[in-house]
């Protein structure tokens, strides 16, 4: 129900655009979050957006560099990543959370559906 894409290799300071395509059924009652997991580390919250697009939230480590947005017509959530740093290297996952649980958007265990990850590698 969720398909993440857009990862790749980029130099520090560069940009990447990740996409999360949701099925119509998923998109109707779910908000979306992006998480990342570096080797040997826990999965951490990156950004979240309500399906209406009215609310967005970022982790402090990416605020000001990453932008999350959605395309209603395409049922797609996009994560624009700018000024990338080597510490942004991780597998990035998108996930869907019921709109009734938006207050838990930062907590991976509260999510209902996960897409497969996409690798982002930032070289120094």
Structure characterization notes:
By secondary structure, this protein is mainly β. Helices cover 5% and strands 49% of the residues. It contains 1 helix and 11 strands. The protein has one helix at residues 24-29, and strands spanning 2-5, 8-11, 16-22, 30-37, 44-49, 56-58, 66-71, 76-81, 90-98, 113-114, 118-123. The protein is globular and about 40 Å long. The mean pLDDT is 93.
> How many DSSP E strands?
11
Helical coverage, percent range: under 10%
Number of helices: 1
Instruction: Please tell me how large the radius of gyration is.
Output: 13 Å
Question: Separation of termini?
Answer: 35 Å
Strand content: over 45%
Average pLDDT, all residues: 93
Q: What is the H/E order?
A: EEEHEEEEEEEE
SSE blueprint and pairings:
Layout: E1 2-5, E2 8-11, E3 16-22, H1 24-29, E4 30-37, E5 44-49, E6 56-58, E7 66-71, E8 76-81, E9 90-98, E10 113-114, E11 118-123
Parallel strand pairs: 2-11
Antiparallel strand pairs: 1-3, 3-8, 4-5, 4-9, 5-6, 7-8, 9-10, 9-11
């Amino acid at each position: 129900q969720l398909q993440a894409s857009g990862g790749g290799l980029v130099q520090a300071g560069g940009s990447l655009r990740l996409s999360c395509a949701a099925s119509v059924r998923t998109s109707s009652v779910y908000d979306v979050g992006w998480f990342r997991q570096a080797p040997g580390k826990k999965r951490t919250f990156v950004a979240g957006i309500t399906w209406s697009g009215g609310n967005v939230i970022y982790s402090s480590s990416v605020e000001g560099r990453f932008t999350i947005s959605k395309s209603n017509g395409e049922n797609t959530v996009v994560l624009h990543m700018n000024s990338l740093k080597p510490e942004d290297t991780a597998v990035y996952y998108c996930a869907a959370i019921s709109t009734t649980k938006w207050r838990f958007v930062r907590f991976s265990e509260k999510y209902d559906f996960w897409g497969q990850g996409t690798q982002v590698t930032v070289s120094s």
